[in-house]
Amino acid sequence: MVLRISTDRALPPGPRRPSPAQLHAWITEPERLYASCRRRFGPTFTLRLFGQPPKVFVSDPADVRAVFRGSDEVLHAGRANAVVEPIVGSTSILVLDGSPHRVQRRVLAPLFRGRAVQPALGDLVALCERAVADLPRGEAFALLPHAQALTLRIILAALLGVRQGPELDALYDRTDALMRIAGHPLLLVPPARRRLGSLTPWARFDDHQQALRADLAERFARARVEPDRTDLLARIVHAGGEGGPERDVELADAVLTLLVAGHETSATGLAWAMHHLAHHPGEQERLRADLRAAFGDGPVDVATLAEIPRLTAIIYETLRLTPPLTQVGRILAAPFEVGGYSLPAGVGVVPCIWLAHRDPAQWPEPERFLPERFLPLERPDPSAWFPFGGGARRCLGESFAMHELRAALAVLVLRCRVQPAGAPSRARRRGVVLAPGDGVRLRIAD
Ligand code: HEM
User: Stretch 375-380: mean pLDDT, rounded?
Assistant: First the structure.
């Protein structure tokens, strides 16, 4: 194979439109942009998005594998995520690279691995039952806001060890306000991150964030003298050893990171899953039958849910066809070879989830929702299916997210028969996620 040495002008081909127009298309019509680039230039192409380094997109499994197996000293995800630093703090695992990132991962990863996360999920099923009981009956409604409220309550309860009730409701109100402002596009523009009066988005964000950090500092102090707690906050406090106020800043960065990383993504996944089940009543019926066989009229439990293959296959297929995050980013700290190109330092490399998940060579009839393709259940190939990213930066919350999606879907499908209340939703960018534009309009039939 001939290796092409890339200067900025000799990167893989890509659209010639000016970079502001490419950025506009990437924000407003990402699916169309991805598909047209794949058609015109093949699986490896370059996008030039205004204000950012050139980004080389890859989706061929061999190239995705090369990126995920590459050295974390060369492929920097923290630099690619820098835009979220004002929200999650400068010591967040999301924005660190190399050895500081590895240190954070060593602290956090064991809390999320396999069964380790289950003790923190105590109220998961009860929270799902309450959210489903509160859904409107007999009228059309958008599911996404309900899914967002549920996943925020779930992650708050698991993180802070707060049971369902008034304390969780108060925490929810404060955090929900913070998350809503955090999604304001102006916060992504550095010059707008100033306190110009008390009503600017940054000032409101800053006020809410300070209040939450003060609340967290009290919780850290309490957790230090309560060694037997199973919530994630207490386990993070004990995993990292002693420390003063500086350590509280780091702990709060970790908690804020998990809130931000683990709420909108899961809500979007849940909304898309219900979208698919509403538009595929046969799949919904088969899932209901499997759930009834497992639970009868009894309560739902997290461990049994993990043993129902069809439920997991439906989630895998949802995350394949409608991945909440459509791409993951790395910035090269040194030259790197991929897709037959030798790319220089400073360039971005982007494994494109959306394109890889629609590759007809890997996924026959890629546009169809076919959960059966994952049955009998096996772990999908990590270079062809990677809604949770991969390699040294693979999502820490994957197991947590799978538990919450299983519980929320199971309770919804067991307690209601869901029908679409309109045409299938079209995907729209909402901050970093690609969400159903109309929020998934549904009606509960019975
Ligand atoms: C369906 C739900 C979710 C999806 C689709 C998702 C997807 C992702 C993706 C694509 C990444 C980037 C991986 C990479 O760069 O290779 C990521 C990172 C991360 N996610 Fe998730 N995520 C979900 C839920 C969660 C939850 C529930 C939590 C926490 C409880 C969480 C915590 C994190 C953290 C901490 C990282 C950063 C890992 C690192 O940089 O080392 N995620 N996630």
Answer: 95
